[in-house]
Amino acid sequence: MLYLIGLGLGDAKDITVKGLEVVRRCSRVYLEAYTSILTVGKEALEEFYGRKLILADREEVEQEADNILKDADISDVGFLVVGDPFGATTHSDLVLRATKLGIPYRVIHNASIMNAVGCCGLQLYKFGETVSIVFWTDTWRPESFFDKVKKNRQNGMHTLCLLDIKVKEQSLENLMKGRKIYEPPRYMSVNQAAQQLMEIVQNQRIRGEEPAITEETLCVGLARVGAEDQKIAAGTLQQMCTVDLGEPLHSLIITGESIHPLEMEMLSLFSIPKNSLESQSIDGLGT
């Protein structure tokens, strides 16, 4: 049996009892190590689970999945995923590969950012399509996701923005020369995401377009959701460019054009002190 086991969002203890029981009886256990991270490392997980884990990077999962599935038809193999197993499409591919090989699978779910984001007080059923914001480079500055933000806002829906993670990435030079030398891990912050969004807004104005959001649109920054030191900050997009939420992982929410009074009351608990939500104009709240 192949087991896909969600680890939740906090630390080693967020695994479910059912998931922990499976981990302890599997012949091999892989830890997926590129779509997200926990606040603790592999060693802390091994100590709590009482067994060794095999790190599985993007290359291992996407190109060498057969290694993970080897002997899973005659023994139990565990595949650990931060959050919920189906938070990334890569893991659906693993299930499809297993099925083609006649290997049965079972999923043990857990909390993910997709539902835990409700901790800020915005109502989950009012979220539209989720988008990803990637690190820009000198030659690649995609803006296409912004169309989804616009559509969500027009429909009165909030947009959850998942921020880029770069783990075990190679420079172009090392990639071309076939050198297995990797860049240091990078995790996009709310500040970086907000700054890129501000540039998109400015670019659209230069092109004579009406941007879906402005510097005064109400946004919510979240960091380390599910951990004891999680942080939430609500304020304008402009404020998100400078707010400090500390260590990764970060997420950003762009609110819809209409916000329920109960949502506003909850967001006021997390307003950025220098310019609290109560003192902002209606326009400043993005409503």
TrEMBL record:
> Has UniProt tagged this entry with the keyword Transmembrane?
no
Which segments constitute the Tetrapyrrole methylase domain?
A: 1-239
Tell me which domain of life the UniProt entry assigns to the organism this sequence originates from.
Eukaryota
The reply on keyword Transferase is yes
Record-level Gene Ontology MF annotations = diphthine methyl ester synthase activity
InterPro entries per UniProt: 4pyrrol_Mease, 4pyrrol_Methylase_sf, 4pyrrole_Mease_sub1, 4pyrrole_Mease_sub2, Dphthn_synthase
Xref: PANTHER family: DIPHTHINE METHYL ESTER SYNTHASE (PTHR10882:SF0), DIPHTHINE SYNTHASE (PTHR10882)
Function, please?
A: S-adenosyl-L-methionine-dependent methyltransferase that catalyzes four methylations of the modified target histidine residue in translation elongation factor 2 (EF-2), to form an intermediate called diphthine methyl ester. The four successive methylation reactions represent the second step of diphthamide biosynthesis.
Name this protein carries in UniProt: diphthine methyl ester synthase
Lineage, top ranks: Eukaryota, Metazoa, Chordata, Craniata, Vertebrata
